From TrEMBL, chain A:
UniProt cross-references to SUPFAM superfamilies, sorted A to Z: WD40 repeat-like
Organism: Cyclopterus lumpus
Metal-binding among keywords: no
Record-given protein name: SEH1-like (S. cerevisiae)
Domain of life: Eukaryota
One GO CC term, this protein: Seh1-associated complex
A single MF term (Gene Ontology): structural molecule activity
Record localization: Chromosome, Centromere, Kinetochore; Lysosome membrane; Nucleus, Nuclear pore complex
Alphabetically ordered keywords of this record: Cell cycle, Cell division, Centromere, Chromosome partition, Kinetochore, Lysosome, Mitosis, mRNA transport, Nuclear pore complex, Nucleus, Protein transport, Repeat, Translocation, Transport, WD repeat
WD repeat locations: 8-40, 273-305
Gene that encodes it: seh1l
UniProtKB/TrEMBL annotation, chain B:
Protein role: Functions as a component of the nuclear pore complex (NPC).
GO molecular function: structural constituent of nuclear pore
Keyword Amino-acid biosynthesis among UniProt keywords: no
Protein name: Nuclear pore complex protein Nup85
Main location: nucleus
Keyword Phosphoprotein in annotation: no
Protein encoded by which gene: nup85
Single biological process term from Gene Ontology: positive regulation of DNA-templated transcription
Family per similarity comment: Belongs to the nucleoporin Nup85 family.
Subunit and interaction comment: Component of the nuclear pore complex (NPC).
GO cellular component: nuclear membrane; nuclear pore outer ring
Entry keywords, A to Z: Membrane, mRNA transport, Nuclear pore complex, Nucleus, Protein transport, Translocation, Transport
Pfam families associated with the record: Nucleopor_Nup85
Subcellular location per the Swiss-Prot or TrEMBL entry: Nucleus, Nuclear pore complex
Length: 366, 653
């Protein structure tokens, strides 16, 4: 792997989250400087900052895109105890020429009494639904019944998890065989409730979410959680960032006919990696769920892959080399895109092949 | 069984702090964004280094030179999939060999192009880069060729060695270059490379060419003519197995041993003792290992050594015996210091007929799935993977094809090739395709249509709906109502179609004209998607009829819009107002019955308005206008009714 390009983000404080949009042509960044920036990728691959604005009165922890079926919509959550929904307004033509766009706030969700730690949109087949979780241990699910009017959101569910929440992840499966399901992770040090990952499932009879499972084997603080995209599997795969990287397989068990409760899930651990040497802070799957990335206290990002025999191993490490780029900051909308020199990886095994004398370039055609 | 080889993961350096900071990341299509951050920071940190780095993996798909490789191999791949399963194997083998050769010629063509650039460029970095790519392709072709010989063609003893000989010759082109240089010189026999060339020819079993070279030497040394003649005879009499001939392998073996004995006798007789070069050649052709090993430089690889050794000591080698010779040759050739390289291990695994090990080692060593995916697919078609374990075999093929195709999918134009690969993965191809195709950026309408066509052909209805919805939403946001409507129709999204139709109607009310007439006029059966849309279409039809002065048809339509409840109540006033000009024509257009119906509609409308009127806060000015309109209508309707009755009551003269 190599660094293809480095973009000067120009945030005045730490960046906490970067989020690609669905098509990979736009990204949003959020920071402790309380702002969100939106970047657009041009045809030649360069990133331009097309919007930058103050979104909250505290550090912005996460920013996320809604599915493009709902238009250009962002949600952010912050230490200031709120989450907000933003919509892009198609601007005047001269704005477009200058490569700028405007985002306006459609709503502020103020129900939380503490820092809002994560914000995620539910899978699109559920409509336009937004979920937040807070340090006060409550997961809130909001819905915008009219997608053409994003200022109207109603709080549909308020779920108390009894533990301070740090992260949520929706099961992306839209199969009719599964009810909507999400997982919540907690970084609470509470010992009474020792299982730090809870799985909730929607019950169409009670029209409420009920807890389907608590992962009792995860007893340390959980910082991030991610369901893998479902590729026609009958079971679910969940990655967890805690004191190590863990991957679980959740197998729905056959429901007894009279049962009206949530599906019983058989929990199996598939892999566990402690290479990060201490806390793991983020985990996330790539689009095809063939690669998992994790970030930890060792300052590295690690990539994990399963071979066709379902054995997982680390296939790559991204590591700070101790010489950060010094960028020119100052111009607010400047897009100083530095095309990074290809910092080549340590030579890959095959490059050894090319040193064989008979395989060098002197061969004539045959 | 495939044991796991523990390969250390490659480390990629990011220009970021290494101490006290974390690296955040975000997955994108085909890349991963990485940035410095600090999780659980309790105090403001100041900006530190706020750079975001785009980290990419597969460079190959972005290389324009390999484009042809991907395109042409795709073509071969698709052709391979169509070979009928029910044909007996013996008919299929030549086809598979031919396909294998096609793949290899594509690799060679690509290599040659790259080679040309590498040689002609002035940029040292480019030359190195291209040179590396050429090396890798060379290795790939070498491996593929060997796999073709051993697995696909599966030559039996006798032919096996001949094929291996071809294989070695194909990959040792420097001999010909050297030979050309020598032959073009003034006195070839005195060229310092002369003997190297002769020996190289012999090592490759190219005895005819060796003999021709030796003639030149012989003419320079007439005194040694007898010795040269003897060598020439030995070389010319070496038996080579002829697979198409009538001689059996056993017969050939006998003949060969006889010849071998003769060569040996010459050696014992010291027939060539006075000429060190000829002595060496004699020792080579008798299969003397030490002499062969003395020519490591000319052999340059252990597998050349292997083939040469077999040629001159055991030409009837059986496939099952190969691995023993391969292992020992590798050990003999590589001195104690050198470690086998990945290529060596791959070739060794091939000689051991351990197909899975070959695939596995290639997967580890190579940066791109292209090679293993295509080779495994071909081997699977030859039913060579299934001999291990049916389920295992087909899983491996799919796994590799899915990996390869997923990699292609991130490329702005190669993704279209990937579709065919997914189509030929029966277990997971469809779901992988469905998932990834949704993420393709719909930069232009043309591209969106292309993507749609692919989804429609495969009945991926959810993807179709989603893509159309995204396009409709995008159009609506940019106020392109016609485009939005047409996408909603394609998405079969009734709710959205209704919404857009409302917009059209609102537009009409404010501006008095319709936009996107073409679209609305040609709705056809799509009109039925939503009531509002139907109304929009019919309303426009009314306007058309009116414009064409087909007044009675227009009148009929207008009336039906209300009586059939196609028009929303909110629009009735507008429709009745539209009726006014028809009522005020000199000719009677609305019949008496129709006029009655219109009156009825008007009353229905006004009564419902009256019900809402008391208590509502309407400005009186609006009320006045409404009231005036109603009165005008009542008057016009009454007049029309009178005229209609008269007209219908009059007997035509």
């Amino acid at each position: 792997m190599f660094v293809a390009r480095s973009i000067a983000a120009d945030h005045k404080d730490l960046i906490h989250d970067v989020s690609y949009d669905f098509h990979g042509r736009r990204m949003a960044t959020c920071s402790s400087d309380q702002s969100v920036k939106v970047w657009d990728k041009s045809e030649n691959g360069e990133w331009h900052c097309t919007a930058s604005w103050k979104t909250h009165s505290g550090s912005v922890w996460r920013v996320t895109w809604a599915h493009p079926e709902f238009g250009q919509v962002l949600a952010s959550c912050s230490f200031d105890r709120t989450a907000a929904v933003w919509e892009e307004i198609v601007g005047e033509s001269n704005d477009k020429q200058r490569g700028l766009s405007h985002w306006i706030k459609r709503t502020t969700l103020v129900d939380s009494r503490t820092s809002v730690t994560d914000v995620k949109f539910a899978p699109k087949h559920m409509g336009l639904m937004l979920t937040t979780c807070s340090a006060d241990g409550v997961v809130r699910i909001y819905e915008a019944p009219d997608v053409m009017n994003l200022s109207q959101w109603s709080l549909q569910h308020e779920i108390s998890c009894k533990l301070s929440c740090s992260c949520i992840s929706w099961n992306p499966s839209s199969s009719r065989a599964h009810q909507p399901m999400f997982a919540v992770g907690s970084d609470d040090s509470n010992v009474t409730y020792s299982g730090k990952v809870q799985i909730y499932e929607y019950n169409e009879n009670t029209r409420k979410y009920a807890k389907a499972e608590t992962l009792m084997t995860v007893t340390d603080a959980v910082h991030d959680i991610a369901f893998a995209p479902n590729l026609g599997r009958s079971f679910h795969v969940l990655a967890i960032a805690t004191k190590d990287v863990r991957i679980f397989k959740l197998v729905p068990m056959r429901k007894e006919s009279a049962s009206t409760g949530p599906t019983k899930l058989e929990v199996q651990i598939v892999a566990q990696f402690d290479n990060h040497n201490s806390q793991v802070w983020r985990v996330s799957w790539n689009i095809t769920s063939t690669l998992l990335a994790s970030s930890g206290d060792d300052g590295c990002v690690r990539l994990w892959k399963a071979n066709y025999m379902d054995n997982w191993k680390c296939t790559g490490i991204l590591k700070g080399d101790g010489s950060p780029l010094t960028g020119s900051s100052g111009q607010p909308t400047a897009m100083s895109t530095v095309v990074g020199s290809s910092v080549q990886t340590s030579q890959n095994a095959l490059n050894g092949m090319s040193s064989r004398s008979e395989l060098t370039a002197s061969h004539a055609s045959h | 069984m495939m044991e796991e080889v523990d390969v250390e993961p490659a480390v990629t350096n990011i220009p970021a702090a290494s101490d006290g900071k974390h690296l955040g990341f975000a997955w994108g299509p085909g890349d991963i964004l990485v940035y410095e951050t600090l999780y659980k920071a309790s105090v403001a940190q100041g900006s530190g280094c706020s750079f975001i780095h785009e980290v990419r993996k597969d460079e190959d798909i972005y290389s324009p030179n390999l484009r042809k490789l991907f395109n042409e191999s795709h073509h071969i791949f698709v052709g391979l999939q169509t070979i009928r399963e029910d044909l007996p194997s013996k008919n299929k083998k030549p086809q598979f060999v031919s396909i294998s050769k096609n793949y290899r010629s594509v690799i060679r063509a690509c290599m040659e192009e790259l080679q040309q650039v590498a040689v002609s460029t002035k940029d040292a970095e480019v030359a190195t880069q291209y040179g590396n790519q050429v090396s890798i392709l060379l290795a790939i072709e070498l491996i593929w060729n060997l796999c073709e010989v051993l697995f696909i063609d599966a030559a039996p003893a006798g032919s096996l060695l001949l094929h291996l000989l071809d294989w070695v010759r194909l990959h040792k082109a420097d001999v010909d270059e050297k030979a050309a240089e020598v032959l073009q010189s003034e006195s070839p026999a005195e060229h310092h490379d002369y003997w190297d060339v002769v020996v190289s020819y012999v090592l490759q079993g190219r005895l005819e060419e060796a003999r021709q070279m030796l003639v030149k030497q012989a003419t320079l040394h007439p005194a040694a003519r007898k010795m040269y003649k003897l060598m020439d005879t030995l070389l010319s009499k070496m038996p080579f197995y002829n697979p198409g001939g009538t001689q059996t392998l056993t017969e050939f073996d006998v003949k060969w041993r006889h010849w071998h004995g003769e060569v040996n006798r010459c050696l014992q007789d010291n027939s060539f003792a006075s000429n060190q070069h000829l002595e060496i050649i004699c020792k080579i052709i008798v299969g003397d290992e030490d002499t062969l090993l003395e020519h490591k430089e000319l052999l340059s690889t252990w597998y050349h050594f292997l083939v040469t050794r077999l040629l001159f000591s055991h030409p009837t080698v059986k496939p099952t015996e190969l691995h023993y010779y391969a292992q020992s040759c590798m050990t003999m050739f590589l001195d104690a210091r050198s470690v086998p390289e990945p290529l060596d291990n791959i070739l060794l695994a091939a000689f051991e007929f351990d197909i899975h090990q070959v695939i596995k080692e290639c997967s580890i060593a190579l940066n791109n799935w292209w090679f293993v995916a295509h080779l495994t697919d071909l081997l699977d078609h030859c039913k060579l993977l299934q001999s291990h374990n049916l389920h295992f075999g087909s899983n491996l093929r799919e796994f590799l094809l899915l990996e390869y195709a997923s990699g292609l999918f991130t490329h702005h134009s190669l993704w279209q090739l990937a579709v065919d690969y997914f189509d030929n993965c029966p277990e997971f191809g469809r779901v992988y395709l469905g998932l990834q195709i949704e993420h393709i950026p719909l930069d232009t309408e043309r591209k969106a249509l292309k993507v749609l066509r692919i989804c429609e052909q495969r009945q991926m209805s959810e993807q179709v709906r989603s893509i159309c919805k995204i396009m409709a939403m995008r159009a609506l946001r940019n106020n392109r109502l016609g485009s939005a409507l047409s996408w909603s129709i394609r998405a079969k999204d009734a709710a959205f179609a209704t919404l857009i139709s409302e917009r059209f109607l609102q537009d009409y009310c404010t501006r008095g004209t319709f936009s996107d007439l073409d679209l609305i006029d040609n709705l056809g059966p799509a009109m039925l998607l939503s009531d509002r849309l139907t109304f929009l279409g019919k309303y426009r039809e009314f306007h058309k009829l009116y414009g064409e002065k087909r007044f009675s048809e227009a009148a009929k339509l207008l009336l039906s819009l209300m009586t059939a409840k196609i028009a929303p109540r909110s629009f009735w006033m507008t429709l009745l107002t539209d009726a006014l000009p028809l009522l005020e024509q000199k000719e009677v257009i609305f019949s008496a019955d129709q006029t009655h119906e219109l009156m009825f509609c008007l009353e229905e409308l006004t009564s419902s308005l009256n019900h809402s009127a008391p208590g509502t806060d309407k400005p009186t000015q609006d009320e006045d206008i409404e009231q005036t309109k109603v009165e005008l209508l009542r008057l016009a309707l009454a007049r029309n009714l009178a005229m209609a009755i008269i007209k219908e009551g009059t007997i035509e003269a």
